[in-house]
Design a protein that fits this description.
CATH class: Alpha Beta
CATH topology: Double Stranded RNA Binding Domain
CATH architecture: 2-Layer Sandwich
Helix content: 40-55%
Order of helices and strands: EHEHEHHH
Number of strands: 3
Shape: elongated
Structural class: alpha+beta
Radius of gyration: 28 Å
Strand order of the largest sheet: 1-2-3
Number of helices: 5
Strand content: 5-15%
Distance between the termini: 74 Å
Largest sheet: 3 strands, antiparallel
Length: 137
């Protein structure tokens, strides 16, 4: 029951831009643009069927997906990781969730629930002020 592998986004459809990374890094960080931003337009893609595109747009709420990465000092590595993030977002959107098969509660679980309910009821009763009329007899 192995699912066929889901398609990857073709690299020519992904627009990559670079900017300066935030955070520590000394003087090097002020000069180099290593943060990678990968942008992909879902609706103009040729690698996916219209149904797959619909699922991706419905899952992420936008026709344009973006993923950025600034974890490393290497522009090339950040670019690769941003593309991986984008592909992972698409893979998750295309995964088909299994239908839940409803089951009945077991006898033991029903007894346990009723027992807890009884204990909770007793705790709440103990919080009340005592009824004075009850002791008047």
């Amino acid at each position: 029951m192995n699912e066929p592998s889901l398609p990857q986004i073709p690299e020519e459809e992904i627009e990559i831009s670079f900017s300066r990374s935030s955070g520590p890094g000394g003087q090097h960080v002020n000069k180099s643009s290593t943060k990678a931003l990968a942008i992909w337009n879902v609706s103009s893609s040729t690698a996916f069927t219209p149904e797959q595109k619909e699922r991706i747009i419905a899952k992420h709420g936008s026709e344009i997906l973006q993923a950025s990465n600034q974890e490393t000092r290497s522009q090339l590595e950040n670019r690769k990781r941003a593309i991986q993030k984008l592909n992972k977002m698409v893979q998750q959107a295309l995964e088909v969730e299994k239908d839940r098969i409803p089951t009945q509660a077991t006898f033991a679980s029903r007894i346990k629930r009723l027992f807890k309910k009884k204990i909770h009821s007793e705790i709440k009763k103990l919080r009340k002020k005592p009824d004075i009329d009850e002791f008047a007899d």
